[in-house]
User: Fold this.
Amino acid sequence: MLKIENLCKRFGDFTALDHLNMQVDKGELFGFVGPNGAGKTTTIRIISGLLRATSGEVWVNGMRTSRNTKKLKESIGYVPDTFGVYDNLKVSEYLEFFAAAYGIYGKKASSRRDEVLEKVGLLEQREMMVDTLSRGMQQRLCLARALIHRPELLVLDEPGTGLDPRTRRAFRRTLKDLCEEGYTILISSHILTELSDICTSIGIIDMGKMVLQGQIDEIMLSIEASNPLLITVFRDTDRAAELLRRNPLVTRISIEKNKIAAHFTGSREEEAELLRELVEAGIPVTSFVREQTSLETLFFHLTEHEQEVSVFEFESGI
Ligand SMILES: Nc1ncnc2c1ncn2[C@@H]1O[C@H](COP(=O)(O)OP(=O)(O)OP(=O)(O)O)[C@@H](O)[C@H]1O
Ligand SMILES: [Mg+2]
Assistant:
């Protein structure tokens, strides 16, 4: 649905995007995460055709965005990081205005207007003036506006800014519903945890480069596989440690009282086998888990600038 290859953007001497690669497949809810100034808005503006890239290519639905501006606008619904102000319009008029901009008029425009208002939960506010809406409602109106021409790809730039946690959560729920309906969605944020519970995939951008991207489940599995196994025993710690040391898949262990941390390179099945061996040897194991890493910890690690960041790339077609 969206493919970005070697995208570069320079503002004078400053490099905002540095050979950025990214892929979002159809039906995905893709979280585009990075600290302030990482290059999210710049990327989104290029995807939406509002800014020209210095070099590199962006494809939406197989079309090069640099060559198909009109068709591109029909395929994309863009929610910018700031609201437009059209103060003296009613909600319904505001949406009809945008429908007309896409060549949708009359009955078709009214039915499309009500359809999107219903989707975003603003049908009851149809007759309200835009400037009397709360910030959360304005956000929903922006989303309704982006949906008016039934685009295939929705691109949202930091839509949660200035909203309270409950409103943000409700907004995320709406996005999830839209994704389940078949929309492909790219949403940017500098808060990873906001996105990790709704997104199917994420891309982490830092200083104009993609430092990690892939499906959330795969990323979590891959991070956890490199974490130690934390084994707690009721007694017989020495015997448990001895058994672990003899296992060729255990590369290192550390012991603290009755807790053993074992670096284990085996598969999930081999992990289960290890537990069985311990239990069969009569060792009273009270807990046996992989140490957890949150995505947030990983995010901080990857966007830490004092040290070189390593580039992970998970299978996502790039
Ligand atoms: N028109 C411009 N002229 C010069 N520099 C710019 C311009 N637009 C963006 N930049 C710079 O490019 C970098 C990336 O900016 P961008 O707005 O894309 O970041 P962002 O990830 O969206 O950040 P935020 O989370 O704060 O919204 C920043 O250092 C910014 O100052
Ligand atoms: Mg931004």
